[in-house]
């Protein structure tokens, strides 16, 4: 097995099933690791140690009893702290929700528990998945394990940090304008936002109803596929849930490894990161190097064009601000002092977007969705940048303010296409700054996460980025 | 300042007086950025161009019960 902290979920589940490792032994290791390293990372809001240990003992007993085991039996997982777990606080990293203790699991939490996975921690976020990183809240912001002076990206900041640090192999985040793919990119892990409607949002604190996605965050593509497999599927109690059958994602990963991607068509939306917004040269060079790897694997690579990145992102932002303001209006009226300054500032423009502008944005949405569908008529997957820049210092407010618009992620919240952030290498060490991770973004047709996983898996298999880990 | 008067008046109308007291400058900047953002998007003119819908009535829309 891979060295324990970075063992994959599937490896760990197999080792527990085969009695080479006990769930309790592994969980104790995980808890010790969190205790030792999280004070520098701040990724954990609530540690679920006692309940997790009880669940691990029960998991070991089930193995001894020869019981039928779920696919993630005994594997620890974490939840961004806007996703409910029964009888644990869901704080949304906010004073407003500091005393919020749900009595029921979110749909995704319930699915994970049914698969045998064990909840070990609720993880840091940006306040209500929107502000941040904020230093004026009861919990400090998470820090990047590659260099704790650096920003994790957000808002699924704790999930990104905890996965990269080897605290657990599986975590869930949420993504309304890129909040899974941003920390995935800056922390050097795999982050998937599946098609809108693929994964239930029930029991997840909303940011913007029509853009919110629950996403999967892992160190490897195969773990990501295994996690999405478990949480996907129709939920009649989520009004946006899609009644579409869920394919076998792990088979797609396996096809990528064994059959490769020869003949698959990849469209590159290059103008997003070379013209509409000029990415850092380290990011551009890493994307180009990745495209060479994919071409060497037999993929047909073609540049494609669509509307400008800013037009997509602005329409996404109008919808996001309008819907988020609707969620937060009553607290902004009655408890504005309880928000972090940054969250108030980010929510406030939503108060001034006119109804007609929101409706126009919703009318633009199918037009933009059709534009991406058209690109995918001639391509199996699309590739573009995720973040335009490598990680940067968390205490630099100008750099933080600059980073959110400098991404190519919001278009795919607007259009609902599945989008995955994939590690593609590292920066060169520079003076006192160590290597920092870089990523790209891969997009598929609606409900075709399989093609994305297949290409991502083939790339991962041809490179060794997922085997490089942060210090400690 | 006229623009501050306007912002304060709007804050009163929106029930955001307390927020305005905390962030008067941000309030004005937020108004400006919202107007700029709205103006930046394409304006569909075809009357048949429908908005994207989430709400459908071929399945129940559940009210979230916080238990």
Task: Explain what this protein looks like in three dimensions.
- The complex is a heterodimer of chains A (472) and B (67).
- With 472 residues, chain A is an alpha/beta fold.
- Chain A is 41% helix and 13% strand.
- Chain A has 16 helices and eleven strands.
- Chain A has an eleven-stranded mixed beta sheet with strand order 1-3-2-4-6-5-10-11-9-7-8, sandwiched between helices.
- In chain A, helix 11 (309-334) runs antiparallel to helix 13 (355-377).
- The longest helix of chain A has 26 residues, at 309-334.
- The model of chain A has no long low-confidence stretch (mean pLDDT 96).
- Chain B is mostly helical and 67 residues long.
- Chain B is built from three helices and no strands.
- In chain B, helix 1 (2-13) packs across helix 3.
- The radius of gyration of chain B is 19 Å and the shape is flat.
- Chain B starts with a helix and ends in a 27-residue tail after the last helix.
- The A-B interface holds A 102-104, 202, 209-210, 236-240, 310-311, 314-315, 317-318, 321, 329, 332-334, 336-337, 341, 344-345, 348-354, 357, 359-367, 369 and B 10, 14-16, 18-19, 22-23, 26-27, 30-31, 33-35, 37-38, 40-44, 49-52, 54-56, 59-62, 64, 66-67.
Low-confidence stretches of chain A: none
- Which structural class do you get from the secondary structure elements of chain A? alpha/beta
Sequence of strands across the biggest β-sheet of chain A = 1-3-2-4-6-5-10-11-9-7-8
Count the helices of chain A. How many? 16
The run of helices and strands of chain A is HHEHEHEHEHEEHHEHHEHHHEHHEEH
């Amino acid at each position: 097995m891979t060295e324990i902290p970075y063992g994959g979920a599937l490896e760990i589940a197999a080792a527990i099933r085969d009695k080479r490792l006990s769930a309790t032994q592994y969980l104790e290791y995980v808890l010790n690791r969190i205790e030792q390293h999280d004070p520098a990372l701040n990724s954990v809001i609530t540690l679920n140690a006692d309940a997790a240990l009880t669940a691990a003992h029960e998991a070991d007993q089930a193995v001894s009893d020869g019981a039928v085991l779920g696919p993630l039996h005994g594997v620890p997982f974490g939840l961004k702290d806007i996703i409910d777990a029964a009888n644990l606080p869901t704080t949304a990293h906010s004073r407003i929700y500091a005393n919020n203790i749900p009595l029921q699991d979110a749909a995704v939490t319930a699915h994970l528990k049914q698969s045998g996975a064990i909840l070990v921690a609720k993880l840091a976020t940006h306040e209500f998945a929107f502000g941040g990183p904020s230093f004026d809240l009861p919990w400090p912001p998470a820090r990047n394990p590659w260099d704790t002076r650096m920003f994790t990206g957000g808002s699924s900041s704790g999930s990104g940090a905890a996965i990269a640090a080897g605290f657990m192999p599986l975590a869930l985040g949420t993504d309304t304008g890129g909040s899974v793919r941003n920390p995935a990119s800056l922390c050097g892990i795999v982050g998937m936002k599946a098609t809108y409607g693929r994964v239930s949002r029930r029991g997840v604190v909303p940011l913007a109803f029509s853009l919110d996605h629950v996403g999967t965050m892992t160190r490897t593509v195969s773990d990501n596929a295994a996690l999405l497999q478990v949480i996907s599927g129709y939920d009649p109690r989520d009004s946006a849930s899609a009644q579409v059958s869920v394919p076998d994602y792990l088979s797609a990963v396996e096809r990528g490894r064994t059959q490769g991607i020869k003949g698959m068509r990849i469209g590159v939306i290059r103008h997003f990161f070379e013209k509409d917004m000029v990415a850092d040269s380290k990011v551009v060079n890493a994307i180009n190097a990745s495209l060479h790897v994919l071409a060497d694997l037999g993929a047909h690579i073609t540049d494609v064009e669509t509307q400008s990145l800013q037009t997509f992102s602005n329409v996404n932002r109008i919808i996001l601000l309008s819907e988020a303001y609707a969620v937060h209006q009553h607290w902004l009226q009655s408890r504005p002092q309880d928000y972090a300054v940054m969250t108030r500032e980010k929510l406030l423009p939503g108060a001034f977007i006119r109804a007609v502008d929101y409706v126009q944005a919703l009318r633009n949405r199918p037009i933009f969705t059709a534009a991406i569908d058209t690109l995918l008529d001639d391509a199996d997957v699309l590739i573009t940048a995720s973040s335009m820049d490598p990680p940067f210092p968390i205490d630099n407010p100008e750099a933080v303010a600059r980073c959110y618009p400098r991404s190519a992620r919001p278009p795919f919240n607007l259009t609902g296409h599945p989008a995955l952030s994939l590690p593609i290498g590292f920066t060169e060490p520079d003076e006192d700054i160590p290597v920092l991770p870089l990523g790209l973004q891969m997009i598929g047709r609606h409900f075709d996460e399989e093609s994305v996983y297949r290409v991502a898996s083939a790339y991962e298999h041809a490179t060794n980025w997922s085997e490089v880990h942060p210090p400690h | 300042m006229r623009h501050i008067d306007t912002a304060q008046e709007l804050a009163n109308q929106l029930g955001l007086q307390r927020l305005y007291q905390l962030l008067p400058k941000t309030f004005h900047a937020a108004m400006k950025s919202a107007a700029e953002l709205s103006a930046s998007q394409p304006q569909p003119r075809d009357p048949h161009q429908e908005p994207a819908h989430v709400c459908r009535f071929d399945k129940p829309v559940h009210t979230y019960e916080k238990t």
